[in-house]
């Protein structure tokens, strides 16, 4: 066989081997046998040195061509094998996230989390964004900017948890309400403002209806012509969405807050029917929120002109709303790790509260 015929035979054999290689390991063995240090092609290239110039002129280019073609064939086969491996993995590891769960998760959503989700869904539908602030607040945001006069009883050690003072003698505190988020939001933005601020709040209190940590949702609307009628309409719409009935009956009772003027509290009519709570009938009223028109001093403290901007705010007790909607008689178990209570009052974490398919 002539030398070039030998090369053709070699190429035919390796090309067939490459095409037949079943996996990456087999393919690499072929690469070593052909192009490795002691591979057949490499050995032939090394022999070029001992050839006559005429022979070399023929065999040199022939061997180079062979090496390049085999290299390209090896690369092509390699990526084909890798693609096949990836496709096989994708096919076997496929997850259809739209399928229903095979098994309900063992945990459940706490009623407070559930109600927070419901509130966010309702107010998002009315065009409110969600704002947040820190649990550890300073006196300015929690009190001063909210128009609490110096020496106001709510600043007393009795209600407020104070932190250890820093070197300058300044003590941070655990926020006693979500109203400081009003200040943080207004100071950073230009009206119109329409936000809710859900979160934890802290007061030194403990009985059947009070826990030292509880939950509020603050609401704030500031614009040029917002008035008390908007406040009332917004809250009534909220209540019928939340209780999923048009039967809700609510009353606004005059009240006092330093940061609103006029101020009111809102009560909801309810009765107990067996274990359940029915809203809209009966002769009991539950206080669920405080509200009012934002005080001009608050607007001024946030660097805005109260002659130009006004609006309303409200703050509601999330735990109270949960008790009213889902019928828990006592607040304290909300914060005790009792698995039976959670199993009874908890919600499926797979069902998201939304207005389209129902809140709960
Ligand atoms: N911050 C008040 C509270 O803790 C509630 C409230 C919020 C009242 C906003 C009026 C306006 O009770």
TrEMBL record:
GO terms for biological process: phenylalanyl-tRNA aminoacylation. It is found in: Cytoplasm. Residues 113-333 form the Aminoacyl-transfer RNA synthetases class-II family profile domain. Transmembrane segments: none annotated. The keyword Nucleotide-binding applies. Binds 2 magnesium ions per tetramer. It catalyses: tRNA(Phe) + L-phenylalanine + ATP = L-phenylalanyl-tRNA(Phe) + AMP + diphosphate + H(+). One of its GO terms (molecular function) is ATP binding. It is an enzyme of class 6 (ligase). The keyword Protein biosynthesis applies. Its EC number is 6.1.1.20. Keywords: Aminoacyl-tRNA synthetase, ATP-binding, Cytoplasm, Ligase, Magnesium, Metal-binding, Nucleotide-binding, Protein biosynthesis. Its cofactor is Mg(2+). Gene3D superfamilies: Bira Bifunctional Protein, Domain 2. It comes from the Bacteria. Mg(2+) binds at residue 261. NCBIfam families: pheS. Belongs to the class-II aminoacyl-tRNA synthetase family. Phe-tRNA synthetase alpha subunit type 1 subfamily. Tetramer of two alpha and two beta subunits. This is Phenylalanine--tRNA ligase alpha subunit.
